[in-house]
Amino acid sequence: MKPKIITIDGPAGAGKTTVSKLLSKKLQCVYVDTGALYRGVAFEIQRQNINWKNDTELEDFLKALDLNFVMEKDAFILMSSGRNITDFIRTPEISMLASSSSARPQVRSALLDIQRNIAKTKNAIFEGRDMGTVVFPDAAVKFFLFADLTIRATRRFDEMPDETKDIHKVQKEIQIRDHNDSQRRSAPLKSAKDAIEINASFLTIEQVVDKMLKIIEKA
Ligand code: DC
User: Which strands sit side by side in the sheet containing 67-72, from one edge to the other?
Assistant: First the structure.
């Protein structure tokens, strides 16, 4: 039987990762955070000092890139050339660089197979920006999760351990990423025509997950 794929797209800070994790436990399937792949690309661009706006340099870099997910316990960790880089990809700099470099079509096509190969063998929840629109247009159930900008910024701010954090900066960065991610030509962030939209502004994570479970059960 073909594995069952559920997609969750939406802007930064809407709660996609937390929701996907919880949902995957309830459904006993894996969840795949595809943003981690774009962050992995950004991490390597930064580490190798790549001029990603230059086509030739970007294409050579992508040819040599060896990025993949490895299953550890019940979660995926991100490996780059055999090194676990999972702990290095969550900085604000990497978030911004992932958002801008992911607009390059060469980057997007380099990551397509990694995502689709996982879906060949496992029931999975994929979260990202273009899961329901481009990567898995035939997914069994598609969600688009969103929330007000100020609420998303406050949630991100509250999660940050750094004492020097600044709510205005967090909000501005999310706003820039929203713009980059939704205005790019290649696979922009948008709700698939057949996606179920959920406004998470005034819902708890549990309420979002419950809503999704009811919809999945009926599908
Ligand atoms: O989900 P995230 O915040 O970790 O993603 C980081 C960036 O990666 C995001 O701003 C845009 C890009 N991204 C993408 O273009 N397509 C995806 N499917 C996932 C993430």
Answer: 67-72, 75-80, 83-84
Q: Using a 6 Å cutoff on CB, does residue 12 contact ligand 1? A: yes
pLDDT bucket at 80, cuts 50 / 70 / 90: very high
In angstroms, rounded to a whole number, what is the distance separating the alpha carbons of residues 50 and 42? 10
- The edge-to-edge listing of strands for the beta sheet with 141-146 is 30-33, 124-128, 5-9, 141-146, 196-199
Of all protein residues, the one whose alpha carbon is nearest to atom 10 of ligand 1 is 99
| Pocket perturbation via mutation, ligand 1, pick of 109, 113, 118, 129 by most ligand atoms within 8 A of CB | 129
pLDDT digit string, tens, across residues 153-194? 999 999 888 778 899 999 999 999 999 999 999 999 999 999
Which domains are assigned to the chain? 5-212 (3.40.50.300)
